[in-house]
Write a structure and sequence with these properties.
Helix 1 crosses helix 6 and helix 11 crosses helix 12. The protein has about 375 residues and is α/β, with parallel strands linked by helices. The chain starts with a helix and ends with a strand. The chain is elongated. About 45% of the residues lie in helices and about 10% in strands. Strands 1-2-6-5-4-3-7-8-9 form a nine-stranded mixed beta sheet, sandwiched between helices. It has a three-stranded antiparallel beta sheet with strand order 10-12-11.
Length: about 375
């Protein structure tokens, strides 16, 4: 390493150290962080400013001023130890590697913690989000859309949560694509803990990213902040299933406010997890039924999307399930016609079909095992293809 290279490395380490100290300052959010950097030229400059200068620059409360005069260097040193570990990165707002789309939002993080390959943050991304407690069909749709779109070169971005988020990450990995997880904790923690292995797979096939310092626990207020980063990194956000009041809608509306595309998959009028998607569609989100609908909308932004990197994988995981090549017996086809696409009970089907409850129970079991329908609460059945 040459002297100039060593000097550059030492200077960068110094910049990161003071940025981490500023990042840990109480009552300093993303906007105040950037205000102070702009006012004093660097994080180091912030710590050499007087209390009067700091107050004039950002109207800082006493708690912030007190910390800036006596930073917790032990905590900063712990952050630097995390940074020194293989695969860990810290990206400052001023770095060329900071995601340009994220810079465009009104409150971009002053720095990002990354585990994995930070280059994936510079790739065209699509966010896929939805309920933590989705239907089985919702899980399948999330996985299928993610696999299809990852096959065309889009990095799938989500929040590592249970349900739709996890299915989206898994779909991208299954299609040999890339995926980014934006976390509401420090990167030394995985929430939920059941996704620990998934987090490892994401780090191998993409990146884990957070604006929260290592050691940060899963506090409820962190997740709405996390959501603006999911949408901010992405060209658009797809909502698969969501209740009317959910974090997924926060992400979608953040995307709208950031000037990004918002997509929603419609569902049954009787499905409470479809109501959030329907609300978004009423507000102007684009209704999508296939991955091609999303590619068509994004073509104006990224006209040269890649062909599937592995055509066999892409064709094996289509957006809409292919019908079985072997046809169902005519009486089963007729029963599916009687069902329609709304939840129905056995008693309703008795009235529509003329079959006995015993005959229906046997046929419904066969159709459920073959994934033509799903059973739900209250003894209802819903056709899914």
């Amino acid at each position: 390493m040459t002297d100039s290279t060593e000097t550059t490395a030492v200077g960068r380490s110094h910049d990161i150290r003071y940025a981490l100290a500023l990042h840990r300052t109480p009552k300093i959010g993303a906007r105040r962080f950037q205000q102070l950097i702009d006012a004093f030229g660097s994080a180091t400059g912030v710590f050499t400013a007087t209390a009067r200068q700091l107050r004039a620059a950002a109207e800082l409360p006493d708690e912030s001023l007190s910390y800036l005069q006596n930073p917790d260097w032990d905590a900063v040193n712990a952050d630097m130890q995390w940074f020194a570990q293989p695969g860990n990165h810290i990206i400052l707002y001023a770095d060329a590697s900071y995601p340009p789309l994220l810079k465009e939002i009104h409150d971009p993080p002053g720095l990002l913690f990354v585990h994995g390959d930070p280059d994936y943050l510079l790739q065209p991304q699509l966010a896929i989000v939805g309920s933590r407690n989705p239907s089985r069909d919702g899980l399948a749709l999330a996985s299928e859309f993610a696999a299809y779109l990852a096959g065309y070169g889009l990095t799938i971005t989500s929040g590592l949560a249970s349900g739709i988020d996890g299915a989206a990450h898994q779909g991208a990995i299954a299609a040999l694509g890339s995926t980014v997880a934006v976390m509401g904790t420090g990167l030394d923690r995985v929430y939920p803990a059941s996704h620990r292995m998934l987090a490892h797979e994401i780090a191998v096939n993409g990146a884990l990213v957070s604006e929260f310092s290592p050691g940060t626990a899963p506090v409820a207020s962190n997740f709405p902040r996390r959501n603006r980063i999911i949408s901010g990194l992405s060209l658009g956000t797809l909502v698969v299933e969501a209740a009317v009041r959910s974090g997924s809608l926060i992400t979608a509306r953040a995307a709208r406010d950031q000037g990004r595309e918002v997509f929603a998959i419609p569902g049954s009028l009787h499905n409470p997890l479809a109501r959030g998607c329907h609300a978004l569609i009423r507000e102007g989100a684009k209704l999508v039924e296939t991955g091609e609908h999303i590619l068509e909308e994004l073509a104006a932004i990224i006209p040269h999307l890649a062909s599937p990197s592995d055509s066999s994988a892409a064709s094996a995981i289509p957006v809409q399930r292919q019908e079985e090549t072997a046809e169902l017996a005519s009486d089963y086809v007729q029963l599916l016609d009687f069902m329609g696409y709304e939840p129905v009970t056995v008693n309703q089907l008795v009235g529509r079909s003329g079959l006995t409850p015993q005959e229906l129970s046997s046929m419904l079991l066969v159709l459920e095992l073959d994934d033509y329908l799903v059973s739900g609460a209250g003894g209802t059945y819903t056709r899914v293809r």
